Amino acid sequence: MRKLLVLALVGLVAQLIDGSLGMAYGLTSSTLLLVAGVAPAAASASVHLAEIGTTLAAGVAHWRFGNVDWRVVTRIALPGAIGAFAGATVLSSISTEAAGPWMAAILFTLGAYLLVRFARPLRTDRVGGRLRGRFLGPLGLVAGFVDATGGGGWGPVATPALLVSGRMEPRKVIGSVDTAEFVVAGAASIGFLIGLGAEGFLLPTVAALLIGGLIAAPLAAWLVRIVPAQLLGAAVGGVIVLTNARTLIRSAELTGPTRPALYAVLAAGWLVALVLAVRALRRTRQARAQAASASLTAAPAAVVPADLATTGTSTPS
Fold first, then answer.
1. What integer best gives the mean pLDDT of the chain?
2. Confidence band for 43, pLDDT divided at 50, 70 and 90
3. Does the global pTM surpass 0.90?
């Protein structure tokens, strides 16, 4: 019971992060399950089965808050489902000994990508035009495959790519990616069901993660409007990097002073990324404040009353 309560809390925190950042539910949950000793394929299968419920709740919540661009959802979800099904089939056929380091390497890479991505300012100034299907289709295919084989990755691949395009509001990027993930999670679950059978899913774990995620989904859709994605992304990236580095170091059989030295380097890199994220956030806010001040300065100081313009005198207020 204690373990299930912890998993429910993890599902809640993971959904809060995912709903407000557009990524990291699968990364956070899969990383914890791998640390707990769950086989990689079973961990990814259980997380994706739980995501069917959490992404449905998140999608409804984002839709009610106006955070969804349905055109983007329809063009990215189907290729994502194809990639996720293929990824689940591949992971189901790999032995546990080989899949462990493989999955940890994918999660480590995605965590490092989050650190680098959110240590720099998020560009959202290139507005105008619509995202084309020839961009959304391949993006969904790659993101879905990485998501299934790594136990997470749909958000870290899809969300930054859409943010960098600058053609969507950040809140709509997050809402659309979360909504499309419902289809991706369903396709991945079907792939794992075919490859592993029903026994490949850890149903108590699925239930705990699902309950925590369902509680957090509505709150996360609201938090996306106020939580600084810059800091949250850098913080989550560091946790994922350090946690999965443990598996990679063990698989490489590194001993002696090398192991603590690597941990120290990774921790220092995380600290640097957090400092850079804070600076980027400050610069972004200062730029917005200056732009707002400039627009107010450029506006007319006063509006001439209509009766003054026509008669030369004004009516007392």
1. 77
2. confident
3. no
Side-chain-side CA neighbours of 138 within 13 Å: the count stands at 4
Reading the block at residue 110, the tokens are: 């995605």
What DSSP letter does each residue of the chain carry, written as one string?
-HHHHHHHHHHHHHHHHHHHHS--HHHHHHHHHHHTT--HHHHHHHHHHHHHHHHHHHHHHHHHTT---HHHHHHHHHHHHHHHHHHHHHHHTS-HHHHHHHHHHHHHHHHHHHHHHHTSPPP-----S---HHHHHHHHHHHHHHHHHHT--HHHHHHHHHHHH-SS-HHHHHHHHHHHHHHHHHHHHHHHHHHH-GGGS-HHHHHHHHHHHHHHHHHHHHHTTTS-HHHHHHHHHHHHHHHHHHHHHHHTT--TTHHHHHHHHHHHHHHHHHHHHHHHHHHHHHHHHHHHHHHHHHS-S-PPPHHHHHHS-----
The candidate with the shortest Cα–Cα distance to 36, out of 68, 7, 72, 65, is 7
Token couple for 258: 């090398």
Residue 23: per-residue pLDDT:
65
**Which residues touch 297 (CB under 8 Å, ≥6 apart)?**
none
CA 179 vs CA 33, 64, 184: distances in Å: 24, 12, 10
pLDDT in tens, 259-308: 888 889 998 998 998 899 888 888 877 877 877 777 777 655 544 454 43
Residue 66's nearest CA partner among 167, 172, 166, 217 is 172
- Tell me how far CA of residue 2 lies from CA of 6, 34, 202, 205, 206, in angstroms: 6, 18, 16, 12, 15
Give the distance between the most distant pair of CA atoms in the chain: 91
Evaluate whether 229 touches 24 at the Cβ level (below 8 Å): no
Q: Which residue has the higher pLDDT, 288 or 64?
A: 64
